[in-house]
């Protein structure tokens, strides 16, 4: 009964727009927005705002614009050029000029008429963007990795649970057939007892540019862009997309991709709510010139799980996920599927009675979950757990020793220095986690 009531309230938000706070702009839905094939009644429509509308953000926004029961009403970006492109994308779809533009995400998340928020900012902004949205009663679709730091990840998934919000991490491979096919082969025992998993991620740039210090362009609110992280001298080479390779803002190729292939590895291993008990980083190699980009270009993380299964996460492994058992193996990547038995690779092969969560499309799964109030295929905690080995790997690399981990309580065992290192987080005023705790 409570879930049904929550769903009805969510749908009624549109009709309550007129009574919303001053921050909430009036919503006008023209007939042109409804599409030729009819549309949901306004009271049933999910109203959405997009935070971060660079390349990935506009791609995600486009997916939601294609759904007749979703109405995108606002975009937010600290780059005025991106902001305009995002608004133009929305207005073109609805053939009007009604999309509201924001520089400050807090204004968007405070709107009473908005049901859901897309977060596709750089990693260092994910936590604060999502927590503000969750506390304002919004459901959230957040790009992977779910957060920049481990402490932020804990805060996000606990906040989502506390406020009972629907949360989808953009680890979209879970919504693809071949990855689900591979997982079902593993969980149904076709490869026998699982022994080892190889997770292959991309190699970083061994020779990144030195970077040139410049004045930020007039269209960019650079101080706001830096947010909770250090305000480094502005370099265009580490702005859009390339912020990933500076550890103040991203986590290099390791953290950019671990939320994809290690997420699939955990899915097949049955570790969505758990993790390894030992983590050791080896062969982390960093560029000689780190004035612009300082993420490792080579990396290897060895993990051991309580059930005896081991894994390696590395750019030295073949890109994708490979589960190795006593009786065979299964390998999966985007557009690729191989196994020790060719019969297993056939789409109609009977994989067994155990079924993995089925999602026909990742953005669609988010919208369907908003309606049903059932968990998404990649919840906040799943997204956090799948990247935790990466966080631990960075700690192990920095301290030069193996980390013993308690996955149930999410604690490093017997190493206070390592745990302190893990829980550290950017806190440039006024953007600390404690400011929204």
Note down, in words, how this protein is organized.
- The structure is a single chain.
- Helices cover 32% and strands 17% of the residues.
- It is of the alpha/beta class and 437 residues long.
- The chain folds into 2 domains: 2-173, Rossmann fold (3-Layer(aba) Sandwich); 177-351 and 380-435, Dihydrodipicolinate Reductase, domain 2, CATH 3.30.360.
- The strands form 2 sheets. It has a 9-stranded mixed beta sheet. A 6-stranded parallel beta sheet has the order 3-2-1-4-5-6, with helices on both faces.
- Strand 1, helix 2 (55-65) and strand 2 form a beta-alpha-beta unit.
- The longest helix is centred in the C-terminal third of the chain and has 20 residues, at 380-399.
- It starts with a helix and ends in a 14-residue tail after the last helix.
Strand content: 15-25%
State the name of the first-level CATH class of the largest domain: Alpha Beta
Q: CATH architecture of the largest domain, please?
A: 2-Layer Sandwich
Q: Got a strand count?
A: 15
**Helix/strand order, N-terminal first:** HEHEHEHEHEHEHEHHEEEEEEHHEEH
Number of helical regions:
12
Number of domains: 2
The parts where pLDDT drops under 50 for at least 5 residues are 1-38
Largest sheet: 9 strands, mixed
CATH topology of the largest domain, what is it called? Answer: Dihydrodipicolinate Reductase, domain 2
Topology readout:
Blueprint: H1 2-12, E1 46-51, H2 55-65, E2 70-76, H3 80-94, E3 100-102, H4 105-109, E4 116-119, H5 123-135, E5 139-142, H6 150-162, E6 167-169, H7 177-187, E7 194-200, H8 222-226, H9 252-269, E8 278-285, E9 298-304, E10 310-314, E11 320-325, E12 329-333, E13 336-339, H10 362-372, H11 380-399, E14 403-406, E15 411-412, H12 416-423
Parallel strand pairs: 1-2, 1-4, 2-3, 4-5, 5-6, 7-10
Antiparallel strand pairs: 7-11, 8-9, 8-14, 9-10, 11-12, 12-13, 14-15
